[in-house]
Specification:
D-Maltodextrin-Binding Protein, domain 2, 12 helices, globular, Bug_dom1, Tripartite tricarboxylate transporter substrate binding protein, signal
């Protein structure tokens, strides 16, 4: 067994000769730095905050982030600027935040593809779990299974029956390889023992002509873009993902209620770099919860087809849920063989 002094390795040097100092003197050197960090965290925020959205301007995540920023400016008393950093399925903006100083002044508001990234990108430059601090979940974002009004498919049971009768004859659309809709479709195949053909598009609007013409059997798309078409009678909704029905479409059953036990759902959420002080994280979590409870934020979420998080979750609760989502999506990707690079 090693003796006491040799078990303690030098971790800080502040003398000009470069030799290791006694532990007591080393602690005296480090203590002012720790105190300075603590004071800075207690004084948070005292300068502008930047929120990076890793998707183009005008999308669902961007709209939520910009409205949230308005409320945070009022609550935190500092400018809150939203910057779009799109590219690589959201990975470019996320990587920039991961490399930022963990002081609470550089944040990320992103969506569920962030949790899927480790399973889909072999060359990912960050780890969503190890390199980030979960701050708050803003809303859940369900996905909608839709088909053309004239389709003989009237339920998830019809999809399963048709796929079993003629494997690989039924196709489904998503908005891209590795997207949440793609993996929901793969989950359906795994859970029901069926074979269907995945056809990726660059969004719901790009897929719409093929859905309406019957070229595609059904689609799994975001509820925001599909709900108006369902309400207008151009499409019929067969199921919605997530643990609960959407307020905007209360008559549509969840995927689990329709017989496929899969309730992982998309979301909008806030993260910071790994190592953010707990006081800063909790301050941001409280500010976000206050903002998301306001009537205008609730209306923005519900009218967009998403679901408010009620009751608001703590940063720790959201962190546990996020890690569970990373594991769930990762398992689906591994079991199905889905990948991007």
């Amino acid at each position: 067994m090693m003796d006491g002094p040799r078990m303690i390795k030098p971790f800080f040097r502040c003398n000009t000769q470069g030799t290791a100092m006694p532990l007591s003197r080393r602690l005296l050197c480090v203590l002012p730095l720790l105190m300075a960090c603590a004071v800075q965290a207690q004084d948070y925020p005292n300068k502008p905050i930047r929120i990076f959205v890793p998707f183009p301007a005008g999308g669902g995540t961007d709209v939520v982030a910009r409205k949230l920023a308005e409320h945070l400016r009022q609550d935190l008393g500092q400018p809150v600027v939203v910057e779009n950093k799109p590219g690589a399925s959201g990975n470019i903006g996320a990587d920039q935040v991961a490399r930022s100083t963990p002081d609470g002044y550089t944040l990320l508001v992103t969506a569920a593809p962030f949790a899927i990234a480790p399973a889909m990108f072999k060359s990912l430059t960050f780890d969503p779990v190890k390199d980030f601090t979960p701050v708050a979940q803003l809303a859940t974002v369900p996905l909608l299974l839709v088909t053309r009004t004239e389709s003989p498919l009237n339920s998830v049971a019809d999809i399963v029956a048709a796929s079993r009768k003629a494997p690989d004859s039924l196709s489904y659309a998503s908005f891209g390889n590795g997207s949440p809709p793609h993996l929901v479709g793969e989950s359906m195949k795994l859970l029901t023992g069926t074979r269907m053909v995945h056809v990726p598009y660059k969004g719901g609007q790009a897929a719409l002509p093929d859905i309406l013409s019957g070229q595609i059997g059904f689609a799994i798309m975001d509820v925001v873009s599909m709900t108006p078409l369902v309400k207008a009678g151009r499409l019929k909704a067969l199921a919605i993902t997530g643990p609960q029905r959407a307020p905007s479409l209360p008559e549509v059953p969840t995927l689990s209620q329709a017989g496929v036990p899969f309730d992982t759902v998309g979301w909008h959420a806030m993260f910071g770099p790994a190592g953010m002080p707990a006081t800063v994280t909790d301050r941001l979590n409280a500010a976000v919860a206050k903002a998301m409870a306001t009537p205008d934020m609730r209306a923005l979420i519900v009218n967009g087809g998403s679901i408010p998080v009620e009751p608001a979750t703590s940063a720790a609760q959201w962190g546990r849920q996020f890690r569970s989502d990373v594991e769930t999506w990762g398992k689906v990707a591994r079991d199905s063989g889905a990948t991007i690079d």
